[in-house]
Write a structure and sequence with these properties.
Pfam families: SUI1. Keywords: Protein biosynthesis, Translation regulation. Belongs to the SUI1 family. The protein is of the alpha+beta class and about 110 residues long. A 5-stranded mixed sheet has the order 3-4-2-1-5, with helices on one face. β1 and β2 form a beta hairpin. The longest helix has 12 residues.
């Protein structure tokens, strides 16, 4: 019986290495800052990908006070919590997050135009 056990192939998972790499990708997660066009010249700036341990409402409060704009935190089923700000605040938000020490500059991706 021992020879028969040695000849039975074991199950092979081709995605085992990929899943192991994904688990270590937490350090490479990016914060995405995007702009969405509304009507005419109006636009929205969205910030997604912040770590869950941060208080989104406190960050939003500081962003609103710093840039004199309105904003909200939206719960998205796929993306989680997303901060929305009025106007094109991409560069401002990027500089604020780096200066506050929330995110490193190399972990920020700015999208749009």
């Amino acid at each position: 019986m021992s020879e028969l056990d040695a000849q039975i192939p074991t199950t092979f998972d081709p995605f085992a290495e990929a899943n192991a790499e994904d688990s270590g990708a937490g350090s490479k997660e990016y914060v995405h800052i995007r702009i969405q066009q509304r009507n005419g010249r109006k636009s929205l700036t969205t910030v997604q990908g912040l770590k869950k341990e941060f208080s989104y409402n406190k960050i939003l409060k500081d962003l609103k006070k710093e840039f004199c704009c309105n904003g909200t935190v939206v719960q998205d089923p796929e993306l989680g919590q997303v901060i929305q700000l009025q106007g094109d605040q991409r560069k401002n938000v990027s500089a604020f997050l780096v200066q506050a020490g929330i995110v490193k500059k190399e972990h920020i991706k700015i999208h749009g135009f």
